[in-house]
Amino acid sequence: MELSVIKYSGEDTGRKIKLSKKVFAIEPNDHAIYLDVKQYLANQRQGTHKSKERAEISGSTKKIKRQKGTGTARAGSIKSPVFRGGGRVFGPRPRNYGFKLNKKLKVLARKSALGYKVKDKCVAVLEDFSFEAPKTKEYIKMLEALSLADKKTLLVLPEPNKNIALSGRNLKSARVTTAEQLNTYDVLNADNLLLSEGSIKKIENILS
């Protein structure tokens, strides 16, 4: 499987790069994708929610009325959940929503996500490039040259590049990552995947 290598200005370099079938052309596994995305979203949750239960409410412990003869239900504490200002029954407590996944399953999920993008012809290979300074205008200019200004894009670099990352940071529909940080959710969330030439070998080494 071969893809043309283009410059970030939109011009064709005349070169082609071969993609590994073991990484970019496997039979996608939807369940692996589901589990990996579920874990990613679970890890984004802070889990700091908390409400006070009746043992944590400030208030008197005195019995508020006599047990019998009032014509209403018995009540022993003003902190009871049935009264306004009382504690909540089984309220939320701080917790960690994360869960473990097999490394092989996570690799399979990323391969499957990449396979879907290649199959849908939503992958472009860019010649390795850099910006002289962080400029959002330059990043927008690049997207316009590639006819992707109105699309959600994910740019994958071989190594962290401060100038490129800062240039794309203010754009809502653009995301910049590295081959090592590539995850299933980001791949599927993007309409188009922009792989820099140097990142392909790294992705293949990590996932093969």
TrEMBL record:
Q: Which Gene3D superfamilies match?
A: 3.40.1370.10
* InterPro entries in UniProt: Ribosomal_uL4, Ribosomal_uL4-like, Ribosomal_uL4_dom_sf
Q: Which Gene Ontology cellular component terms are annotated? A: ribosome
Task: Alphabetically list the UniProt keywords.
Answer: Ribonucleoprotein, Ribosomal protein, RNA-binding, rRNA-binding
Sequence segments annotated as region (Disordered): 45-77
Per the similarity annotation, which family is this? Answer: Belongs to the universal ribosomal protein uL4 family.
Q: Quote the function comment for this protein.
A: Forms part of the polypeptide exit tunnel. One of the primary rRNA binding proteins, this protein initially binds near the 5'-end of the 23S rRNA. It is important during the early stages of 50S assembly. It makes multiple contacts with different domains of the 23S rRNA in the assembled 50S subunit and ribosome.
Instruction: Give the matching NCBIfam families.
Output: rplD_bact
* SUBUNIT field: Part of the 50S ribosomal subunit.
The name this protein goes by in its record: Large ribosomal subunit protein uL4
Origin species, per record, is: Agaribacillus aureus
Q: Which gene encodes it?
A: rplD
